[in-house]
């Protein structure tokens, strides 16, 4: 019996590990100072908005919702989510679900909140922000500034220049680029117009260049867009066009691994059971 418990525990641990895939890494979160009364109609409105976001994420990478005031709640609540452009609907919805659940803990009873995981962004507030360009720097991180070689610097600049290039006819909120080992990824929230997205990304990229100087990698998150680069593959999985396949491969591999470990554990349980039975037989004689 004890062995069987170990098997279950092991499987649970592995499932938890696989759930902590890189799309779930926490990037930043913030809440409005203003709080609502727990149990108030406002709370119901926020809950139904967040539920709408989770449901919508099962079929589209971006959506926005506006919940109109009801007779009992005078506040309108606005919300949006944006998944990274390369995520499948399945991974997008899991990411949004996780972001909403973390938002619920981080921004308990707050009138508004925003949270960015590696794979998705979620925001709600009773002050309208939909379609409003916002270039406030929210989070900046630079890697070790060990001094890129001039070659690496050139590749970095190429990657960033390409991210900034808008190919007018094919407007994209999600962009990736690569040159040698250098990778870049950029994403706008879907509520921006093409020109606003372009403007936001240009800003993020300029700041990234200026503030991360000769770092081997850098992240620049503005309120409505972000740009990231790395030299040497830190984001190669994220920015690679095949990343969907890679992620699916990893999930498959994990599933097989879980199966294998569970199988081996079962065999051990069975063998120990057999040996006990044998011992009993020996003891009986
Ligand atoms: C947002 O909600 C807070 C708390 O209920 C309220 O004080 C504030 O006036 C609301 N803002 C808007 C724009 O409705
Ligand atoms: C919000 O969503 C509606 C319905 O999907 C869409 O028509 C509208 O353009 C969106 N607004 C913004 C700012 O993205």
What features would you describe in this structure?
It is a single chain. This protein is α+β, with helices and mostly antiparallel strands and 285 residues long. It has two domains: 25-125, Gnk2 domain, C-X8-C-X2-C motif (Killer Toxin P4, Chain A); 137-239, 2-Layer Sandwich (Killer Toxin P4, Chain A), CATH 3.30.430. It has seven helices and ten strands. The protein has a five-stranded antiparallel sheet, with helices on one face. The longest helix has 42 residues, at 243-284. It is flat, with a radius of gyration of 24 Å. The model is unreliable at 14-20 and 236-249 (pLDDT under 50). Residues 64, 130-131, 190-191 line the site of one 2-acetamido-2-deoxy-beta-D-glucopyranose (NAG).
Keywords:
single chain, Killer Toxin P4, Chain A, five-stranded antiparallel sheet, 7 helices, binds 2-acetamido-2-deoxy-beta-D-glucopyranose
Quick rundown:
With 285 residues, this protein is α+β, with helices and mostly antiparallel strands. The chain folds into 2 domains: 25-125, Gnk2 domain, C-X8-C-X2-C motif (Killer Toxin P4, Chain A, 2-Layer Sandwich); 137-239, Killer Toxin P4, Chain A (2-Layer Sandwich), CATH 3.30.430.
């Amino acid at each position: 019996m004890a062995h069987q418990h170990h098997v279950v525990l092991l499987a649970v641990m592995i499932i938890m590990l696989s759930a902590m895939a890189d799309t779930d890494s926490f990037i930043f979160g913030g809440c409005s100072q203003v709080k609502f009364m727990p149990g108030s109609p406002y709370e119901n409105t926020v809950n139904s908005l967040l539920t709408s976001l989770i449901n919508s994420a099962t079929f589209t990478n971006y959506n926005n919702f506006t919940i109109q005031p009801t007779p009992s709640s005078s506040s309108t609540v606005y919300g949006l989510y944006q998944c990274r452009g390369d995520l499948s609907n399945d991974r997008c919805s899991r990411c949004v679900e996780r972001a909403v659940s973390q938002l619920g803990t981080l921004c308990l009873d707050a009138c508004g909140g925003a949270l960015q995981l590696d794979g998705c962004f979620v925001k709600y507030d009773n002050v309208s922000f939909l379609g409003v360009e916002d270039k406030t720097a929210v989070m900046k991180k630079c890697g070790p500034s060990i001094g890129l070689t001039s070659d690496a610097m050139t590749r970095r600049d190429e990657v960033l220049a390409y991210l900034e290039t808008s190919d007018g006819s094919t407007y994209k909120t999600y962009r990736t680029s690569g040159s040698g080992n250098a990778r870049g990824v950029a994403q706008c929230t879907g509520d921006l117009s093409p020109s606003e997205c372009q403007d936001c990304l240009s800003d993020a990229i300029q700041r990234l260049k200026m503030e991360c100087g000769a770092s081997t990698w850098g992240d620049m998150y503005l309120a409505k867009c972000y740009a990231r680069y790395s030299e040497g593959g830190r984001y190669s999985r994220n920015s690679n066009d095949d990343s969907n396949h890679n992620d699916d491969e990893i999930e498959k591999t994990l599933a097989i691994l879980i199966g294998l470990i569970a199988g081996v554990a079962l065999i051990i349980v069975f063998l120990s059971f057999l040996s006990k039975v044998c011992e009993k037989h020996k003891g009986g004689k």
